[in-house]
Design brief:
The protein is mainly alpha-helical and 246 residues long. The chain is built from twelve helices and two strands; from the N terminus they run αβααβααααααααα. Helix 1 packs parallel to helix 3. InterPro entries: RNaseH-like_sf (IPR012337), RNaseH_domain (IPR002156), RNaseH_sf (IPR036397).
Length: 246
């Protein structure tokens, strides 16, 4: 028996559904004694757990009782996977072949609410990422290509984390306080041009020697994403007396 389930179904649900379908077949078969072999330890543990409220597990438990009430015996036996057991290898092969089927099995059972939640959550985050990627570039786009990208901090110090975050988003008190005070943007005291995060980290000639001292590259994308450079960024900011100005 092989069939294809909806893509939103998790491995755990798919394994449980396969066992449920096998039990249905046993229920309406003429033989008396049955053994069902599975490598799904999660389903077996779910059956053993009296407090399990997962609908498909409860359905499996009810089917087992119904089979036993019909004077049949059923044993569910766990077998380890991927160790060359012939029957299990055949089942795995059939499962892989089923993924190529065109028709999706009509599930006469509610899909797990966990699977539905995960599917909806995935669609929301994919939509969010699409909107993020489609919008005009912001300062954060320089160091973050997608919402899924994890940017390291490499520090547990709260103030250091704040500094790194503000450097990455390109907004700080030093560079953007004029938006609150309605004054003119701050100018670099050395260059007499508007001060920005890229100017502080990569452009200002007055800080060139400090950048060399702490091995800070001219590409701020590299500077703000490389875990080995981040401690030097903090030292650099401290040396410039900018720790509490950002």
């Amino acid at each position: 028996i092989k069939f294809k389930l909806n893509d939103i179904c998790s491995v755990a649900f798919s394994e449980a559904f396969a066992i449920r379908k096998s039990l249905k077949k046993i229920l309406y078969s003429k033989e008396i004694n049955y053994a069902l072999f599975t490598d799904s330890l999660s389903v077996i543990n779910g059956i053993r757990n009296p407090g399990n409220k997962e609908p498909i597990i409860l359905d499996i438990i009810n089917l087992i009782r119904e089979i036993q009430n019909n004077k049949k015996t059923i044993k569910i036996i766990w077998i380890p996977s991927h160790i060359g057991i012939q029957g299990n290898e055949q089942a795995d092969k059939a499962a892989k072949e089923a993924t190529a089927l065109d028709d999706i099995c009509t599930v006469a059972h509610p899909v797990s609410h966990h699977d539905l939640y995960n599917s909806i959550q995935k669609q929301i985050t994919n939509k969010w990422n699409y909107l993020w990627s489609s919008n005009p570039l912001t300062k954060l786009h320089i160091v973050r290509n997608s919402i899924f990208e994890k940017i390291p901090y490499n520090t547990t110090n709260r103030r250091d984390q704040v500094i790194l975050t503000r450097l990455r988003i390109g907004h700080s008190r030093l560079t953007h306080s004029h938006l609150f005070t309605h004054n003119s943007p701050a100018l670099c005291q050395h260059c007499n041009i508007r001060i920005t995060i890229p100017h502080i980290l990569a452009e200002c000639p007055a800080y060139h020697q400090s950048r060399i001292k702490y091995n800070i590259p001219p590409d701020i994308c590299i500077s703000l994403k490389n875990k080995t450079i981040l401690p030097n960024i903090i030292k650099y900011v401290n040396e410039l007396n900018l720790r509490y100005l950002l």
